[in-house]
Design goal:
This protein is 52% helix and 13% strand. The protein is α/β, with parallel strands linked by helices. A four-stranded parallel β-sheet has the order 2-1-3-4, with helices on both faces. The chain contains nine helices and four strands; from the N terminus they run E-H-H-H-H-E-H-E-H-H-E-H-H.
């Protein structure tokens, strides 16, 4: 099956914003997530992350190559995208995504790092010719900050700024694209309606 016309669903959102839960909902709707998903971690994501291990590893490596991490406050800019291309990450990302989507017509992937790396990934999607749709998970920033305080002991101010950075990039980079915004609290209370 060629990449042209293949549907790609990208889950965007800040860590601890319900991206795993909503991605699990996408799987229920028939979106293929691959067969190399991160295992659940009791006390953190008991039901699983619904995140492809290989795509996650590539995102971690790319942020590291930029001297960044998921919790760095500085955004990725065009010079960072150019740097990733020069270091060969564009070809690696294209090849990995083609491998993941080879035998499926609708593939979805989630990694909160994609919100940070979205300018890079959008060039990959365009190059491959995918029909891309975005799902943006939004959760009250106070809830996100409280969850991060328990998980990694971040100060609330840092968590608020991280939330804002992830949400702004996700909204601005998908403004003219096919997207749906899902309120995590509404999703939890009315999962069937939201699906």
């Amino acid at each position: 099956m060629s990449e042209i016309g293949k549907r790609l669903i990208i889950m965007l959102g800040m860590h601890r914003s319900g991206t795993s839960t909503i991605t699990r909902g996408l799987k229920v709707l028939g979106v293929e997530l691959g067969n190399k998903l991160m295992p659940p971690v009791l006390g953190d994501n008991d039901k699983g992350y619904f995140e492809d291990i290989d795509l996650n590893a590539l995102n971690v490596e790319m942020l590291d190559a930029l001297g960044s991490d998921w919790h760095c406050l500085s955004p990725i800019d065009q010079s960072d995208v150019d740097s990733l291309r020069k270091k060969g990450y564009f070809v690696r990302a294209v090849n990995l995504l083609r491998q993941k989507t080879e035998c499926v017509s609708i593939f979805g992937f989630k990694d909160p790092r994609v919100s940070k790396l979205l300018p890079f990934w959008q060039l990959v999607f365009l190059h491959c010719g995918y029909d891309v749709g975005y799902v943006l998970a939004i959760r009250n920033p106070l809830s996100v900050a409280q969850s991060l305080k328990k998980r990694v002991e971040f100060k609330y101010e840092k968590s608020y700024l991280l939330w804002l950075g992830h949400v702004l990039v996700s909204l601005s980079q998908t403004q003219d694209k096919s997207r749906v915004i899902v309120d995590y609290d509404q999703f939890i209370h009315f999962p069937k309606n939201n699906l």
